[in-house]
Amino acid sequence: MKEFELIKRFFTEQVIKRKDVVLGIGDDCAIVSPSERQNIAITTDTLVAGVHFPHETSAQAIGHKAIAVNLSDLAAMGAEPAWISLAITMPEVDLKWVEGFCHGAFELCEYYNVQLIGGDTTQGPLAITVTAQGLIPMNKHLTRSGAKAGDWVYVTGEIGDAALALKDVFNEINLATEYRESVRRRLDYPTPRVLAGQALREYASAAIDLSDGIISDLGHICRASQVGANIVLDDLPISNALRDTVSLEEAFEMALVGGDDYELLFTVSEDNKVGMETALANSGNTITCIGQLNRSEKITTTLNSKAIAINAKSFEHFASSKK
Questions:
Q1: SS3 15
Q2: Which of 41-45, 112-116, 257-261, 311-315 has the lowest mean pLDDT?
Q3: In angstroms, rounded to a whole number, what is the distance separating the alpha carbons of residues 65 and 189?
Q4: Domain 3-137 architecture
Q5: What's the pLDDT tens digit per position in 21-68?
Q6: Where are the beta strands (DSSP E) in the chain?
Q7: Which among 260, 253, 258, 263 has a CA at the least distance from the CA of 153?
């Protein structure tokens, strides 16, 4: 099947047809028309086989994750997802694989009312690039640079299970059968915290999504806001699967630097804590306070009120090529 036949069969038949899309797939550009007094948030992520997902990952899971990681970025800014563009590179046309990929991608798009408006298909090693765009009321966006010393640090959901799943994939741990399916789902089918992000617009001082681990991603907030932080390890929301599979020290390490959680990490002032907790409860999201910001411009960790060092590093592209 040739490129344009592939596009017509799989990528132009999406259920979602948004009213703000003037012109979708089929021309050199898409045209959208947002409402007045709205800003547009734009993000792009690339997923490469063997780097961002194991080679044996199902097509449906890859489709879901390709969309989810981009919606997670929009959530961290407080945006409502609206449109995506998709560029997919494949070694060959496998119709069953493409069908599964589209099922995973479009199922999530349908849930969040997101329309595919364009993209590209090429031949080569498997890689997927998605550009997602979302809408935010004017001047209501969240950033990494608004945090202040004294603000509290929160995360949504549980953290560390995606890292645990990767260790299971590579046979580095002995994961109990009762945990395998739920843990692998956290890796393959992350849930973008879209409603939480929108609820946080009125309360959070800074926010980021957890793609590379708490230490790395909180570090981005600390550098942008010129603050430091202390993380209370006792309070990290880690699952029974993680606690039962590895030592407590390993569990903390995986939660802090494992990455791939796609939860939201955000900061809130003392004055906004109660309002934020109420708003997040109403959005159906669980949250946990894991620490507090300070003026040190460093990130420290404590356990049982005593300082403890975490030496492991988060994943970073091109780190092995640094000199």
A1: coil
A2: 311-315
A3: 6
A4: 2-Layer Sandwich (3.30)
A5: 998 887 888 899 988 899 999 999 999 988 888 888 999 999 999 999
A6: 21-23, 31-32, 38-48, 80-90, 115-123, 127-137, 152-156, 204-209, 228-232, 264-268, 287-294, 299-303, 306-307
A7: 263
Domain limits, the chain: 3-137, 152-310
Q: How far apart are CA 202 and CA 98, in angstroms?
A: 40
Neighbours of 72 (CB within 10 A): 26
The alpha carbon of 282 is separated from its chain's Cα centroid by a whole number of angstroms, namely 21
Confidence tier at 177 by pLDDT (50, 70, 90): very high
186-197 pLDDT, tens digit per residue, is 999 999 999 999
Taking the C-alpha atoms of residue 163 and residue 251, their distance in angstroms, rounded to an integer, is 10
Q: Which two tokens stand for residue 313?
A: 């590093």
| CA-angle at 61, arms to 42 and 2, nearest 5° | 80
Residue 34 DSSP class: P
In CATH, the architecture of 152-310 is Alpha-Beta Complex (3.90)
The DSSP bridge partners found for residue 251 are none
86: phi then psi, degrees, rounded to nearest 5: -130, 125
CA angle 45, 48, 54 (to 5 degrees): 125
Stretch 109-133: mean pLDDT? 93
Tokens of 113: 């009312």
pLDDT computed for residue 48 by the predictor:
92
Q: What is the pTM of this model?
A: 0.90
293 neighbors 218 (Cβ within 8 angstroms): no
Tokens of 47: 């997923």
Can you say whether residue 159 is alpha, beta or left, with left for phi > 0 and alpha for psi between -120 and 50 degrees? beta
